[in-house]
Amino acid sequence: MPKIVKQSFSWFVSILLGIVVALILSIYVVQPTKVLGKSMEPTLHEQEQIIISKLPNTFNYHPNYGEIVIIDSRVSQKRSFKDDLSDNGLVRLLTGNHSDNIWIKRVIGKPGDVIDIKDNQLYRNGQKLNETYIKEAMNATNPVEVQLPYTVPKDSVFVLGDNRNHSRDSRSIGAVPIDHVLGVALFTK
Asked: What distance in Å separates the CA atoms of residue 41 and residue 124, rounded to the nearest whole number?
């Protein structure tokens, strides 16, 4: 009987260690996630699986223009380890809890950039952007709640969805603090 208890304990410890390692990797290194919504069409589609690198968040790295990022849209709330844990894809998979505050968007502006929209066209630092990835031209009736032109603050990024007419993004919440950029999309499955 003690041999069975030892083996059971060994299995339990191994499984627990595996779960802890997987959780650490998915919080700080890489994690799979699923696209929810249509705000990134035509680039990403609803229910599409993507792999994201968590290293930018881990090391406070500023993503580059055009990179697709996963953000916490609660920009006025300070993030904590509890947020990192509850917003984690592995934890969401296990609990079945999907948060509406995790968004997938594209980086348009970096600190100090001046973002403006004129005649349904996007401008960064006075230069009209050639955006071949957007679904359709921006519609003037889509509400912009931030004051334009908008200067991106220090340690923040300005993000937009590729489906501009059906996207909540920095036009409504303002710039996203760098600690709210949870990861950068590596590739889709």
From this structure: 22
Q: Which residues of the chain register pLDDT less than 70? A: 1, 57, 84-99, 140-143, 188-189
Decide if 105 is catalytic: yes
Catalytic-labelled residue, pool 53, 73, 105, 170: 105
User: Is 78 one of the catalytic residues?
Assistant: no
Mean pLDDT of the residues in the chain: 84
Which residues lie across from 156 on neighbouring strands? Answer: 177
Helix or strand (DSSP H, E) at 16 = helix 2-28
Cα 177 to Cα 8, 119, 181: the distances in Å are 46, 28, 7
Instruction: Give backbone dihedrals phi and psi of 120, rounded to 5 degrees, phi first.
Output: 65, 20
Domain 2-188 is in which class? mainly beta
Which residue among the candidates 39, 53, 156, 170 is catalytic per the annotation? Answer: 39
Residue spans of the domains in the chain: they are 2-188
Strands (E), the chain: 30-34, 49-53, 68-72, 102-109, 114-118, 121-124, 127-128, 150-151, 156-160, 176-177, 181-188
Residue 61, CA atoms < 13 Å, CB-side half-sphere: 16
pLDDT digits (tens, 9 = 90+) for 38-76: 999 999 888 888 888 887 767 777 899 999 998 988 888
**Spatial distance between the Cα atoms of 137 and 165, rounded to a whole number of angstroms:** 8
In the block, which residue shows the tokens 């993000």?
159
